[in-house]
Amino acid sequence: MGVKLAKKHRIKKQHVGIMLVPTSQCDTGCSHCIDDSGCKNPIHFTEKFAKLIVSQARKEKFELSVLLTGGGEPLMTPEFLKIADVFGNYKKLLTFGIITSGFTENEFQRKSQLETLLKRPYAEKLIVEQSFNLYHQTFPERLANMTQLMMRLGKTDFYVRMCTSATNFYQTHRKLEEVLQEIAKKIKGRAFQLPIEDTSLEDEPLDFIRENVSERLTVEAFFSPQWHILQTKKEVFAIIANSFFLTREGRASKLKEDSLDYCVCDSLKTFSDYDVSLFIAPDGTVYPECPCFPDKRMQLGKIGEDSLVEIVRRKQIFNQRIFQEILADRRMSQWATRETCKLCRQLVAEKGISLGL
What's the pTM? Predict the structure, then answer.
């Protein structure tokens, strides 16, 4: 099937966005974890898989964007730096990012892996995002450690990804502010918030921050319209806080706090064959989206068994058909919620990942 689709839908230029979960292993044990990650029988992505992706992308002249994210904690991946080097040194890499829960003072492997990564030449294009929440007691320490490491290495900004509920939204923001105020005391500087809409300030350091990160701020800080500044006499540093809402799945299903049932599916908002996104699990299996994992019926293929070209074409067909299939189906669902995901799975179960083509 994949070969026929590749010939029929081949296009001259291709950008592939990869959301990669490099490991299922995590020892933090957060109560809000939707993946229920742990350290029992971990599965790890490998350098070999990364090289297969890049070699096929290079052959096809694909542009890549890569995000290393949880499932487990990316910094606990045994071949983490080797995998990062393979992607980071790819010449047609447009963006490269990592979402991590950071490190405590006792987590030497995590700290070493992250610091080494941040010193790589390609780290100039690296977008770092730190998880933050009130569901585990170590996250204020993790945020403080991450901020101080980034400043020590001369970085100008990073992102904070805050998991909140309707119950603790305010408290989560307040805790982040408290952590930054404590850091400001240590560095003999000041910490303050700046509304993203405010373009009237003429302070030179703020102009510097605005010129360097304002474009990303406009996109990334949708849920949280304020961003945070740490300023000393010699430097200025930005922490951009993005909120997303608790989903009661996995371990989080035991929480009694109010969650928000929503789903932003790339396949329902992508109408160009140029942009294709893939979700890759630690074992190399590929899915259309993160919520599709680990439903085997939703697999587009597997790295090492199916070519990247074939997997991309399957995703293109999926993107082209799933929107109209959902609209044409008589079974109703509340749009952009998990109900839509459920209907999508039902359609794939009935018609296959090619949706009957």
Answer: 0.86
